[in-house]
Amino acid sequence: LIKPLVGQPYPMISHGKGVYLYDQNGNKYFDGSSGAITAGIGHGVKEIADVIKKQAEEIAFVYRSQFTSEPAEKLAKKLSDLSVGDLNWSFFVNSGTEANETAMKIAIQHFQERGIQGKHKILSRWMSYHGITMGALSMSGHPLRRQRFVSILEDYPTIPAPYCFRCPVQKVYPTCQLACATELERSIERIGAEHIAAFIAEPIIGAAGGAVVPPKEYYKVIKDICSHHDILFIADEVMTGLGRTGAWFAMEHWGVEPDIMTLGKGLGAGYTPMAATIVSDRVMEPILRGSRSVMSGHTLSANPLSAATALAVIEYMEKHNLPEKTAEKGEYLIKGLQKVQQQSTIIADVRGKGLLIGVELQPFTKASELISVAAKNGLLLYQAVSGQAGKE
Questions:
Q1: Whole-angstrom Cα distance, residue 225 to residue 234?
Q2: What number is the average pLDDT over the span 248-277?
Q3: Which Pfam families does the record cross-reference, listed alphabetically (predicted)?
Q4: pLDDT digits (tens, 9 = 90+) for 364-387
Q5: Which pLDDT score is estimated for 389?
Q6: Quick check: 51 pLDDT over 90?
Q7: End position of a domain, from candidates 276, 300, 319
Q8: Does 353 map to a domain?
Q9: Which of 28, 236, 265, 358 has its Cβ near the most Cβ atoms within 10 Å?
Q10: What is the distance between the alpha carbons of residues 196 and 122, in angstroms, rounded to a whole number?
Q11: In the prediction, which pLDDT does 142 show?
């Protein structure tokens, strides 16, 4: 087995229950990060296991070119109902990376079906992460992950992140007049709007920054710039979606509707590999008038087992009011961590929304060592690595 670090010993998992994981040596761990911000409803939920068993006994897989399935149709309808605006069309895949690549393809195809052939670039931000395949990595402004493949990646990251704590353009909010957002306008002018299909961003920066929340006006400025230049706005909600930030989707916090939205992680909640690209009526309209086929797909896309599982996850969240509870518990936890910060010499910043919370350490502190010590003491955390100047 090729592990994340070959030759490194990893504990052997035994089982999980609720927020706890247990290895085969009897050690108990508090899963403080839901794995990779994934297991949002906890481990070992019987209602989900029962649905998986029932669906597996009925039909686990059909090829999407031959059949549709009731679970997939119901899940698409549920996501349409939960989403704001006219985000009514779902394309199901198996990972957030695939969802973002599908979003990229749909954005380009949207313009092709309108008879516009030159719009094929996807702009993005530095200090971002959208996936590890070549297309998704091209959109990712993560130097550490890009460096090995930089010669064959597209130069899609073009603007700085809305990272007020350590502003990349050395300004101070609000006197900065959102220079990090208006930089998009300058990038479009430099590259040419006629070449750009979409701009993609994580509503709250995750793996590349650790729960970096933008100023409240940021996304309105971004969306207005995109709309003015006939450029689609893709919200990468792979980490933030499905209740993690205290709302079903993080873009709800700012009242801005994306043209395309991607989901992953929390959609399957660790019970199944499941992700989605959700597309607005406006974006789909020329495709429906034209080829009627999105040029993407994978063997296991929209399989009934994963769709039924994801639907059960959402219904469980609705039944237990988890987005609302996440907002309440997140506020409580952030306040508690800020109190700890006041007494600490190593905590530089505490930030986030809901239960997507980042604790940034002082530059002299090595986060990887702290996380290792925490794990040895039964607390599992998730490290966000910017890859900028070698910083953790």
A1: 13
A2: 99
A3: Aminotran_3
A4: 888 999 999 999 999 999 999 875
A5: 43
A6: yes
A7: 319
A8: yes
A9: 236
A10: 6
A11: 95
Residue 278 near residue 389, CB atoms below 8 Å: no
What value does the mean pLDDT take over residues 130-143?
97
Question: How many domains does the chain divide into?
Answer: 2
pTM here is 0.97
Taking the CB of residue 6, how many other CB atoms lie within 10 A of it?
A: 7
96 domain residue, yes or no: yes
- Confidence band, pLDDT 50/70/90 cuts, at residue 390: very low
Question: Does the structure show a pLDDT above 70 at 222?
Answer: yes
Domain that holds residue 332: 13-44+321-380
Per the DSSP assignment, residues forming a β-bridge with 196 are: 121
In this prediction, residue 388 carries a pLDDT of: 55
Say which residue the tokens 């603007």 belong to: 159
33, 282 contact by CB (below 8 A) = no
